[in-house]
């Protein structure tokens, strides 16, 4: 059992983007925060990185809110991953970064090499999945399960 908190920023932002992708209207930070049971300030901070890259936009005032401005067929998980700061993929790491012990140096080299290869593979696979792919998978799952689930799983407006 692990007690280390996992970084869920990528998962959270993908969750929000799919809600936005299946909506015919802008969503306020408050609405988006309610999907994640979090604070609207955190939503705004996280979406700011995507806005800087032109993936989302926001309008102030009545009827305003956040919308996706990118083509879902072109926006990849890798794009979103980079936009949220390229969070560390693995929580594991070396005990000491610059050990004097020769044994620990060998252990560090071996682990670092394996971690780097695994992370590179995972991040490269992110480039092969678009938001359109996730959207299609959601649509298929929704069609299969329909209105049986609670409002949160409903087909967004």
Quick rundown:
The protein has 157 residues and is mainly α. 52% of the residues lie in helices and 5% in strands.
Notes on the protein architecture:
The protein has 157 residues and is mostly helical. 52% of the residues lie in helices and 5% in strands. It is built from 6 helices and 2 strands. A two-stranded antiparallel ribbon has the order 1-2. Strand 1 and strand 2 form a beta hairpin. Helix 1 packs across helix 6, helix 2 packs across helix 3 and helix 4 packs across helix 5. The longest helix has 25 residues. The protein is elongated and about 65 Å long. The N and C termini lie far apart (39 Å).
The major sheet is characterized as: 2 strands, antiparallel
Helix content: 40-55%
Structural class: mainly alpha
- Content of β-strand: 5-15%
Give the CATH level 1 class. Mainly Alpha
* Total DSSP E strands: 2
Total number of domains: 1
Task: Identify the CATH homologous superfamily.
Answer: Winged helix-like DNA-binding domain superfamily/Winged helix DNA-binding domain
With helices defined by DSSP (H or I, 4 residues minimum), what is the helix count?
A: 6
Q: What radius of gyration results from the CA coordinates?
A: 19 Å
Regions with little confidence, pLDDT below 50 for 5+ residues: none
- The CATH topology corresponds to Arc Repressor Mutant, subunit A
């Amino acid at each position: 059992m692990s007690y280390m908190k996992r970084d869920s920023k990528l998962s959270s932002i993908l969750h929000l983007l799919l809600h936005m992708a299946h909506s015919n209207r802008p969503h306020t930070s408050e609405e988006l925060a309610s999907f994640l049971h979090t604070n609207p300030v955190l939503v705004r901070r996280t979406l700011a990185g995507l806005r800087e890259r032109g993936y989302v936009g926001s309008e102030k005032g009545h009827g305003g809110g956040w919308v996706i401005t990118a083509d879902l067929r072109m926006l990849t998980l890798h794009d979103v991953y980079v936009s949220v700061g390229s969070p560390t993929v693995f929580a594991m790491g070396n005990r000491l970064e610059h050990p004097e012990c020769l044994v620990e140096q060998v252990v560090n080299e071996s682990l670092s090499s394996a971690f780097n290869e695994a992370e590179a593979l995972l991040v490269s696979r992110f480039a092969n999945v678009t938001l359109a792919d996730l959207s299609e998978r959601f649509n298929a799952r929704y069609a299969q399960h329909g209105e049986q689930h609670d409002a949160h799983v409903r087909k967004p407006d």
